[in-house]
Protein backbone atom coordinates (compact mmCIF):
# COMPACT_ATOMS: atom_id res chain seq x y z
CA UNK A 1 0.00 0.00 0.00
CA UNK A 2 1.17 3.53 -0.78
CA UNK A 3 1.87 6.29 1.73
CA UNK A 4 1.58 10.07 1.80
CA UNK A 5 3.45 11.85 4.62
CA UNK A 6 3.64 8.53 6.48
CA UNK A 7 -0.11 7.84 6.21
CA UNK A 8 -1.37 4.79 4.32
CA UNK A 9 -3.58 5.38 1.28
CA UNK A 10 -5.57 2.90 -0.79
CA UNK A 11 -5.16 2.30 -4.53
CA UNK A 12 -7.28 5.40 -5.29
CA UNK A 13 -5.32 7.65 -2.92
CA UNK A 14 -7.87 7.81 -0.08
CA UNK A 15 -6.61 7.57 3.49
CA UNK A 16 -6.93 4.13 5.05
CA UNK A 17 -7.16 5.61 8.56
CA UNK A 18 -9.21 8.83 8.57
CA UNK A 19 -7.55 9.86 11.83
CA UNK A 20 -4.21 10.23 10.02
CA UNK A 21 -5.38 13.33 8.14
CA UNK A 22 -3.68 16.68 8.56
CA UNK A 23 -3.21 19.74 6.35
CA UNK A 24 0.24 18.57 5.21
CA UNK A 25 -1.33 15.40 3.78
CA UNK A 26 -3.95 17.48 1.93
CA UNK A 27 -1.21 19.69 0.46
CA UNK A 28 0.79 16.63 -0.69
CA UNK A 29 -2.29 14.99 -2.24
CA UNK A 30 -3.04 18.23 -4.10
CA UNK A 31 0.57 18.50 -5.30
CA UNK A 32 0.23 14.99 -6.70
CA UNK A 33 -2.71 16.28 -8.76
CA UNK A 34 -0.82 19.47 -9.79
CA UNK A 35 -3.01 21.69 -7.62
CA UNK A 36 -1.83 24.34 -5.20
CA UNK A 37 -4.43 24.67 -2.46
CA UNK A 38 -5.91 28.16 -2.18
CA UNK A 39 -8.21 29.67 0.43
CA UNK A 40 -11.14 28.63 -1.79
CA UNK A 41 -9.96 25.01 -1.76
CA UNK A 42 -9.66 25.12 2.04
CA UNK A 43 -13.20 26.51 2.32
CA UNK A 44 -14.51 23.43 0.52
CA UNK A 45 -12.15 21.00 2.30
CA UNK A 46 -13.14 22.36 5.72
CA UNK A 47 -16.80 22.31 4.74
CA UNK A 48 -16.48 18.65 3.71
CA UNK A 49 -14.76 17.75 6.99
CA UNK A 50 -17.45 19.55 9.04
CA UNK A 51 -20.24 17.90 7.04
CA UNK A 52 -18.69 14.47 7.54
CA UNK A 53 -18.24 15.08 11.26
CA UNK A 54 -21.92 16.01 11.59
CA UNK A 55 -23.49 13.37 9.31
CA UNK A 56 -20.82 10.61 9.19
CA UNK A 57 -21.09 10.54 5.40
CA UNK A 58 -19.53 12.51 2.58
CA UNK A 59 -22.11 14.63 0.73
CA UNK A 60 -23.16 13.76 -2.79
CA UNK A 61 -22.09 16.38 -5.35
CA UNK A 62 -25.62 17.80 -5.65
CA UNK A 63 -25.87 18.20 -1.86
CA UNK A 64 -22.35 19.65 -1.73
CA UNK A 65 -23.12 22.17 -4.47
CA UNK A 66 -26.31 23.38 -2.76
CA UNK A 67 -24.70 23.55 0.68
CA UNK A 68 -21.63 25.45 -0.60
CA UNK A 69 -23.97 27.94 -2.29
CA UNK A 70 -25.93 28.39 0.92
CA UNK A 71 -22.78 28.95 3.01
CA UNK A 72 -20.52 30.86 0.59
CA UNK A 73 -22.93 32.44 -1.91
CA UNK A 74 -24.54 31.33 -5.14
CA UNK A 75 -21.50 32.32 -7.23
CA UNK A 76 -19.66 29.45 -5.49
CA UNK A 77 -22.62 27.08 -5.26
CA UNK A 78 -22.36 25.67 -8.75
CA UNK A 79 -20.65 22.79 -10.49
CA UNK A 80 -18.51 25.02 -12.71
CA UNK A 81 -16.91 26.74 -9.69
CA UNK A 82 -16.39 23.47 -7.79
CA UNK A 83 -14.90 21.71 -10.82
CA UNK A 84 -12.55 24.67 -11.33
CA UNK A 85 -11.13 23.88 -7.88
CA UNK A 86 -11.35 20.09 -8.09
CA UNK A 87 -11.10 19.11 -11.78
CA UNK A 88 -11.29 15.37 -11.02
CA UNK A 89 -14.60 15.89 -9.26
CA UNK A 90 -15.49 18.06 -6.26
CA UNK A 91 -16.93 15.10 -4.38
CA UNK A 92 -14.25 12.53 -5.03
CA UNK A 93 -11.15 14.75 -5.20
CA UNK A 94 -12.39 17.13 -2.50
CA UNK A 95 -13.10 14.26 -0.11
CA UNK A 96 -9.71 12.70 -0.84
CA UNK A 97 -7.94 15.98 0.01
CA UNK A 98 -10.15 16.31 3.11
CA UNK A 99 -9.09 12.86 4.32
CA UNK A 100 -12.60 11.45 4.02
CA UNK A 101 -13.87 8.21 2.48
CA UNK A 102 -14.84 8.18 -1.18
CA UNK A 103 -18.40 9.53 -1.47
CA UNK A 104 -21.11 6.96 -2.13
CA UNK A 105 -22.01 6.86 -5.79
CA UNK A 106 -18.62 8.12 -7.02
CA UNK A 107 -17.00 5.91 -9.63
Automatic annotation (TrEMBL):
InterPro entries noted in UniProt: DsrC-like_C, DsrC-like_dom_sf, DsrC-like_N, DsrC/TusE
EC code: 2.8.1.-
GO cellular component: a single term: cytoplasm
A Pfam family hit: DsrC
One BP term from GO: tRNA wobble position uridine thiolation
A single MF term (Gene Ontology): transferase activity
Enzyme class label: transferase
Transmembrane regions: none
UniProt xrefs under Gene3D superfamilies: 3.30.1420.10, DsrC-like protein, C-terminal domain
Superkingdom in the source lineage: Bacteria
Keyword terms of this UniProt record: Cytoplasm, Transferase
Compartments, record wording: Cytoplasm
Active site: 106
The family this protein is said to belong to: Belongs to the dsrC/tusE family.
Function: Part of a sulfur-relay system.
Protein name: Sulfurtransferase
Native source species: endosymbiont of Bathymodiolus septemdierum str. Myojin knoll
Organism taxonomic ancestry: Bacteria, Pseudomonadati, Pseudomonadota, Gammaproteobacteria, sulfur-oxidizing symbionts
Gene: dsrC
Amino acid sequence: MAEICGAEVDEEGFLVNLGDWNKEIAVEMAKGDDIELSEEHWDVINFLRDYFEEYQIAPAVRVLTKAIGKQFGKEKGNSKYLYSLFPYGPGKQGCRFAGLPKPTGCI
